[in-house]
Design goal:
Elements lengths: L2 H10 L86 E2 L5 E8 L19 E6 L4 E6 L7 E7 L6 E5 L9 E6 L4 E8 L6 E8 L29 E2 L9 E4 L2 E5 L4 E6 L2 E6 L8 E3 L5 E4 L3 E5 L5 E6 L5 E4 L5 E4 L4 E4 L6 E5 L5 E6 L5 E6 L5 E6 L11 E5 L5 E6 L5 E5 L4 E5 L6 E5 L15 E2 L10 E6 L5 E6 L6
Parallel strand pairs: 1-3
Antiparallel strand pairs: 2-9, 3-8, 4-7, 4-9, 5-6, 5-8, 10-33, 11-12, 12-13, 13-14, 15-16, 16-17, 17-18, 19-20, 20-21, 21-22, 23-24, 24-25, 25-26, 27-28, 28-29, 29-30, 31-32, 32-33
Length: 499
Amino acid sequence: MRPTALALVLLLSPACKPADSDADADADADTDADADSDTDSDADTDADADTDADTDADADADADSDTDADADADTDADADTDADADTDTGSCPAPAWDQDLGSALGASVATIDTCGETDDFPQGCGGGASDDYAFRWTAPADGPYAFATAGSSFDTVLTLRTACDGATEIDCNDDVNGGLQSQLEVWLGAGESVVVVIEGYGNACGPAVLGITEWTGTVGNTHDPDPPIVPCSYAVPAPPFNPTLIDAASGYHGLAVFGDKLVGSNGTSLVQATSPTVSSLFVPNINQGQQMAYLPSGDLVFSTGGSLVRITPQGGQTTLVNGLNAYGVRIGIDGMIYTANEQVIHRIDPATGVATVFLSAIPVPKVVDFTADGLNMYVGTNSSDGDVYRVALDASGDPILPPVHIGRTGGSWHDAINVDVCNNVYVNEFWTSSLYIIEPGEPPRVLIDFDAQALGFDAYGHGMIWGSGVGSWDDEKVYMPLPYAGHGVLQYDLGIPSR
């Protein structure tokens, strides 16, 4: 038994005054020189060496082992179990919400009036700034939930933000189904909290109703409750990236690298470069096509637009599938081919050419890539909001949860998506002419503004691959095709390898 617990038991026992049988100068039965019945040399009635009346070894009046005057074991002056100066049990700053709804469910869990409130949160949609009212809500179980303002009397805007301070927007909706009310669906883990903000379009305000229900439809707008974070010794890429034009290489919408060969289209043929200054004709008279990727065997898979063809190292061609109209092409960790055509994502067996629909739940999917362990697929889109998704996969490479919405780029036209060894995600976006980076658990941000490179030509990278680490193609550098600058190729030094 701990000594403090023993002292507590003794203190709770009936008191009696023993005869003084010791050799000190007081009237108690212990061996110290004070007038109490314990064995320490202070004037209190407990068995520790301080001057308070509790059973711990500090100088405050509570029963814990810290130096503040509250009944917890941290060093702040509040009554919770964390080390900050508030009354909660986590590391949240002051609450960013107006009302905590707990885990309430129903068509009307709250009714409020936003008029007279303050504008505390920026809008991600709705085109204005208006009085807002914020709720905190916690999911009672794993699953999809719908948040709606049906029954409100004005043109609402609904935003979901991360708890506990509401700093990061998860998603935003102005009008649903052509009306003036708003709705969002999100997948949440049990115990996960979000901040729900109701405000008005422009500067509108008025009586509002919030409904929160379990959702049974497709979850089109979700966020990432559990981003795949891996230990990583590489720093997040930061400028300067030293863009360098690779004179001998060519590229249109895609590139592929295998060994010392970097392959891309010059508009009429496929060209392979073995160094920045040496290239040769690979496949003549072939459509400039879309994206491409190498199979482990060394055969190239190339989307000509309508068909998916397999090309041997000697240039021999076999049509795998007709009619896919694929843009994005990737080889999965399982050795299968994955394509996206702005309608669905297909999985194709390279041995048989059999194509099956892998995923249809993501709107306008265009490009895909995977984490190194094959347990996560990332999807870039041509959706109007620039949505990026993650799909959790099992060991067989099949989806196990609905797609998770991990953020939005500033534009809506994704031409490439890539994952590095640290699970940072990179998205090439056309309308903003930018390369975005999405660090695990963070919102997208611009890493490279192609227009700001001031290289004297259109430097937008319409695709991206990492080097192979063989010959001239550095595996910590990326290569991007330039369809608007004579089918050239730019190299950028990110200082981090691919997944």
